[in-house]
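Before the break, one more example. Copy the sequence into your notebook; we will annotate it together after we see the structure.
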Amino acid sequence: MRIVLVGPPGAGKGTQATRLAEQLRVPHISTGDLFRANISQQTELGKLAKSYMDAGNLVPDEVTIAMAKERMEQPDAEGGFLLDGFPRNVSQAEALDELLTTESMKLDAVLDLEAPEEEVVKRIAGRRICRNDSAHVFHETYKKPAKDGVCDVCGGELYQRDDDSEDTVRKRLEVYHTQTEPIIDYYKAQGLVVTISAMGPVDEVTQRALEALKREDDGQ
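Here is what the structure looks like once it is written out:
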């Protein structure tokens, strides 16, 4: 299957993308991973992207699209892929359609993870990260440490990342509503959108998504 995963920040896209890609046996193609890989390997696209980032500018769509194109052309993506973080706006969605048409391919579904805005803010703003190891993540509501401000694993200090402050989260949501959310209507016009709730335990959301995708696949 060829799937695009969309949803607001805090809906659990990264977690679900990894789990769904494993279950569906397709590569998880994340724009964040693409940027990091191209920059660390110092590819031409990576150098170009870094030049924009170092100048404090957004990386142009054509650079992001070129990175995604290269990744989707790799052998492990022949049987399908799951795109996470791309397309991020309607112009990228149009470019993806053109690319897939050129390659005689098409999307099977656009999985839309829905979560109430206040829940999203609560999820992100409540996160606390260990200064010693960023893999040690706690939450003020959902995963409290035994001692406030102290990592249960190594005893390191827990802190809130600047990106996780409530004001920043609300600004990120504004960007999502303005730039990314319109692609849902774009894909609805093509009959591709499958919407599920991102609320509840991670396993339940994964199962909900797999069942919804199977129904979509069976109906085509």
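The chain has a mean pLDDT of 93. The longest helix spans residues 202-218. Try to locate both features in your own notes.
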